[in-house]
Design a protein that fits this description.
By secondary structure, this protein is α+β, with helices and mostly antiparallel strands. It has helices spanning about 40-50, 70-75, 120, 160-175, 220, 225-240, 245-255, 265, 290-310, 355-370, 385-390, 395-405, 415-420, and strands at about 25-30, 35, 60, 95-100, 110-115, 130-135, 140, 145-155, 180-190, 195-205, 255-265, 280-285, 320-325, 340-350, 375. The structure holds flavin-adenine dinucleotide. Flavin-adenine dinucleotide (FAD) binds next to helix 2.
């Protein structure tokens, strides 16, 4: 759990009178934006859009994170994203944000609209700017997506595999240059077996076809199957770790999907895998240098192989690659100042016997040091302020520091790691 999103001692109560759970926390504004109050989840947002057309037209979000139980304001505040080079992170969908009063600081609610000074900086708020009372999101006409997932086997020695992996990432990028493609992602089983790496390339095309009669493969849909896999993997890792690579390759093979048409909100929801207790790091890497970005993936796989061979420590889930397009989001956004970003997510089961931190912390350091890989604030975070600082422009940190110092002069929402990063206090 991120020390920035959940600072010790934690538990600052944002508002003494949070809106009642029964009152709707999502509505349309007069201008047709989707207004989400503090605490509203993506489930509430998508359910509202399903039930309430705007001026007779059904609407939806252009993008959303892969898990709808998360809150809109929390995902925004952690620099969250969906996938697709045509779309920025969630911050890019925000038309307005309302920051509530802070004792001894900001005295009234402050509403900022897109284009106003500070707007781009406060979106990745990290809970440090006090209560965010509401955000207003852009919506688009409802659309459907045709999802397909092609499984690929990459053969050969390490150098050949590296070339083929790079080609695969380039394929995912090129696919997204087509305006008919909403997004693409890649999952990679992290360990080679018999010199084979198994990967899957998922693409989502806009379509007018009706929703398919069939469903996603069981491996992506059945929570029971995934729970069983969770138990099996935990046992295998403890007793016969050598079986983990083969199991992971099989898991990726089982995600193969022929063209499946879904409503956008369902296509963008990853489904059952997100219901497992996982621990992950996720790193945002500048995609302007594609060769360097793909080297980061190759480095990830080499690192994971090495720690598995040397110390019998395995991760128990595929490595995920997602893409984020241009945004004006600034401040501590993982995407600030970058035209295109590639995310590498390395998840594993949260079972303490898997010693996730021992595997993931050095990898996160390596990403930061060698690839300027900024962490997703809402995932596992092991970096110190000193390690984080070089990845953002000094001027951005200065501007954000000025906003925090002005709005929360007494440090009501102080956060040791964040304040150290911003050189506050
Ligand atoms: C299963 C799963 C799947 C995920 N998938 C994705 C994904 O696809 N894409 C992605 O980008 N991320 C993803 N994440 C990471 C996610 O973005 C973070 O976990 C994020 O912290 C979730 O926000 P939350 O509000 O639900 O939780 P929290 O962690 O409680 O909130 C996040 C931060 O925002 C602050 N905060 C929340 N609400 C307010 C408010 N109203 N005012 C001020 N501060 C506030 C909190 O204090 C905290 O610092 C996933 C996480 C999980 C568990």
């Amino acid at each position: 759990m991120s020390a920035i999103c959940h600072p010790p001692p934690g538990g600052v109560i944002l508002l003494s009178r949070e809106p009642s759970r029964d009152a709707p926390r999502v509505s349309f504004t007069e201008r047709g934006h989707l207004r989400c109050l503090l605490g509203a989840t993506f489930i509430e947002a998508t359910a509202f859009l399903d039930a309430h057309p705007w001026q007779g037209v059904r609407k939806c979000l252009i993008n959303q994170p892969g898990f709808q139980r998360l809150t809109v304001i929390g995902v925004l505040g952690a620099g969250g994203h969906g996938s697709g080079l045509h779309n920025g992170p969630i911050a890019s969908q925000v038309a307005a944000i309302e920051l509530g009063p802070i004792p001894g600081g900001r005295t009234t609610t402050r509403r900022l609209e897109r284009g106003e000074p500070d707007f781009d900086r406060v979106l990745t708020h990290l809970g440090r700017l006090g209560p965010v009372l509401a955000v207003e999101l852009d919506v688009v006409d409802r659309f459907r997506l045709a999802e397909s997932r092609e499984v690929l086997e990459i053969h050969g020695n390490a150098a050949t595999r590296e070339r083929q992996l790079s080609a695969l990432i380039r394929r995912a990028i090129v696919a997204q240059a087509d305006p008919r493609v909403h997004s693409a992602d890649v999952w990679i089983a992290p360990y080679a077996q018999a010199r084979i790496v198994v990967a899957a390339l998922g693409t989502r095309h806009f379509t007018r076809q009706s929703v398919s009669a069939w469903q996603r493969p069981l491996a992506l849909r059945s929570a029971a199957l995934l729970q069983a896999a969770n138990v099996a993997w935990n046992v295998a890792t403890a007793l016969r770790p050598g079986t983990v690579p083969g199991m992971l390759q099989q898991a990726v093979r089982m995600t193969a999907t022929r063209r499946l048409v879904l409503e956008a909100r369902d296509a963008l929801d990853l489904g059952a895998p997100n219901r497992l207790p996982m621990h992950a790091i996720e790193t945002a890497i500048d995609l302007d240098d594609v060769a360097r970005a793909t080297r980061a993936i190759v480095t990830t796989l080499a690192y994971l192989e090495e720690i598995a061979t040397r110390r019998s420590l395995y991760v128990c889930a595929p490595v995920g690659i997602r893409f984020v397009g241009t945004t004006t989001a600034a401040g501590l956004s993982p995407h600030a100042g970058r035209r295109r970003t590639m995310h590498i997510e390395v998840p594993t089961f949260a079972d303490p016997r898997l010693r996730a931190a021992e595997v993931l912390a050095p990898l996160q350091r390596l990403f930061a040091r060698d690839f300027s890989g900024r962490p997703h604030w809402g995932q596992g975070l092991y970096l110190s302020a000193t390690e984080l600082r070089p990845m953002w422009d000094d001027s951005e940190l200065r501007e954000l520091r000025a906003i925090v110092a002005r709005d929360d002069p007494h440090g009501v929402f102080a956060n040791p790691l964040l304040d150290s990063l911003l050189a506050l206090g």
